[in-house]
């Protein structure tokens, strides 16, 4: 089984609830856990998030834990070298990240981050293919998508979400908050960013079987944590065809109708 955890954005308490539930109720030694990126910014405790990520990797094993890169990690890394990029990152939640570490902004801010956290960020992956699923932070550019100035797998939105292209696997993604705060489920993609940093947002964790035979929209279970520490489980099932309310005409009636026309 693969468990995918959506955008965290500094919400350490929500992440702790999700990981505790995962460890105590679901996780098997052979399972893989994929974190979808955007660990930092906007929320109050990016430092606490990284502490939990380190602890979980040590608990479950490095080979079974995948850290994807999000656009916020991308901004953090590029902010080191470019004042304009630094301003962009700070405006989009970087101030909250520095505050969680007790770092006062200065030219040396990056070197003041814990080395283990810097290494984790630098080692994040752009994507993780696994059987019938393909995990990526923002999405995969369709064939007809225009060129983007930044890495599309970290930044793409509408061009990917609106595409009906067959990507060769079901793409599981974050990055774009689903307005309903429930997963977006389509035949070719599943979105699990449900706005954890928003006042009414939720952190979503979804379970996928990479060997499952999929015909149309997949079935899967997902779990959501709210800001009150409550976690709920949901099972998404395929909708059964609705029975028609119209009665089929009897053969005699059908024949009579044809004679009258």
UniProtKB/TrEMBL annotation:
InterPro entries: Ap4A_hydrolase (IPR050126), Calcineurin-like_PHP (IPR004843), Metallo-depent_PP-like (IPR029052), Ser/Thr-sp_prot-phosphatase (IPR006186)
Span list, region Disordered: 239-261
GO cellular component, one term: cytoplasm
A GO MF term: phosphatase activity
Biological process terms in GO annotation: RNA decapping
CDD domains tied to this protein: MPP_PPP_family
Start-end of Basic residues biased regions: 239-249
Protein name, entry field: Ser/threonine protein phosphatase
Lineage, opening ranks: Bacteria, Bacillati, Armatimonadota, Armatimonadia, Capsulimonadales
